From TrEMBL:
Gene Ontology BP terms: animal organ development; mRNA transport; positive regulation of translation; regulation of mRNA stability
Listed InterPro entries: FMR1, KH_dom, KH_dom_type_1, KH_dom_type_1_sf
GO molecular function: mRNA 3'-UTR binding; translation regulator activity
SMART domains, per the entry: KH
Protein's UniProt name: K Homology domain-containing protein
């Protein structure tokens, strides 16, 4: 084919028919076309970013703006993929990659980021910084995951406590052996009698915990296991003697009725000590207080009776029910 240099002052029309489009100099960066078609524009080259150029804060760019001599791939742990593509993750990763050209995020492979730069030492340094950021984030996520799990467990425990599916109670260290029983005999007894999941004895904290699926059964187990000491004041010696009764009859009767383990009258301190399960000790306390109250009522009734007798005698004297003149023989005279 023959080639003729076209008139640079009259470029060919886009339809190739050779009609001039007008005079004037050719457009810059548009080379002459021997085939008579409109020259295609040459894309302008973007200026190469300087080392350490400012990144796109909070935005993920999928491809570098230009070709770099060095690059380094990072494979993200699965737990960090979503975070790395968030505005926070992008900003932190880009901010850590100091001194390089760009950081790109691969949309096709979301678990991959690439560092781009002109010098290997710059890319290596940025890689160390980005690795440090990722390691810190992994540790933070691990702590957050543990905290979330702990919060969930706490919420579950509190919910079951509110519903009565879990109970715990403090035990006086001196009564721990009584609660557990010989070789755990009382624990086994409660597990056999009650439909519960487990009994946990924390000897260091002196706490017993009961877990089950039925609040009624859990409460029943607690009543069988919990040991309490109740103290009733009995400062009057006579009251203490009445409480004991002849041969200890009254105390034995209270113990039998309540189911208390022991009832001890302490004459030195003037108190009655009751020991037993929570319900038994509470019942024994009511009975002992009732005896003391009854004794006080009897004392008050005795005093009132004496006062009544004195009043009757006074009335008899005042109205002559018991004087000499009231004793007149039949048909006689009071003066003889």
């Amino acid at each position: 084919l023959g080639y003729t240099q076209p008139n640079t002052h009259q470029p060919m029309a886009a339809n190739g028919r050779g009609r001039p489009r007008g005079g004037g100099a050719p457009k810059p960066n548009l080379p002459a076309n021997p085939f008579g078609t409109e020259p295609e524009p040459v894309p302008a080259q973007a200026p190469a970013p300087k080392s350490g150029a400012k990144k796109r804060g909070g935005r993920a760019n999928a491809a570098p703006a230009r070709t770099y001599a060095e690059s380094r791939d990072f494979s993200l742990p699965s737990t960090l993929v979503q975070w790395a593509h968030s505005p926070e993750g992008i900003e932190l990763i880009q901010g850590a990659a100091v001194g390089i050209g760009e950081v790109t995020f691969d949309d096709a492979r979301r678990d991959r980021i690439v560092l781009h730069g002109d010098l290997p030492e710059e890319v290596d340094r940025a890689a160390l910084l980005v690795e440090s950021v990722l390691e810190r984030r992994i540790k933070l996520q691990q702590r957050l995951a543990i905290k979330d799990k702990l919060d969930q467990e706490r919420g579950k425990v509190q919910d079951e406590l509110d519903r009565g599916l879990r109970v715990e109670f403090k035990v006086d260290p001196k009564f721990m052996g009584m609660v557990v029983g010989a070789k755990g005999s009382r624990i086994r007894m409660v597990q056999e009698r009650c439909r519960i999941d487990r009994v946990v004895v924390d000897r260091e904290a002196c706490v017993v915990r009961i877990v089950g699926s039925d609040p009624v059964e859990v409460r029943k187990a607690r009543n069988l296991l919990e040991v309490k000491e109740e103290i009733v004041a009995a400062p009057d010696d006579r009251a203490r003697r009445v409480l004991i009764g002849k041969g200890g009859k009254n105390i034995q009767d209270v113990q039998k009725r309540s189911g208390a383990v022991s009832i001890d009258v302490d004459h030195d301190e003037g108190v009655v000590r009751i020991l037993g399960t929570a319900s038994a000790a509470a019942a024994a306390k009511v009975l002992v207080e009732s005896l003391v109250s009854h004794l006080d009522e009897m004392d008050a009734a005795t005093d009132e009776l004496e006062n009544l007798r004195w009043e009757i005698e006074r009335l008899d004297t005042a109205w002559g029910e018991d004087n000499f003149y009231s004793r007149v023989p039949a048909g006689g005279s009071p003066f003889g």
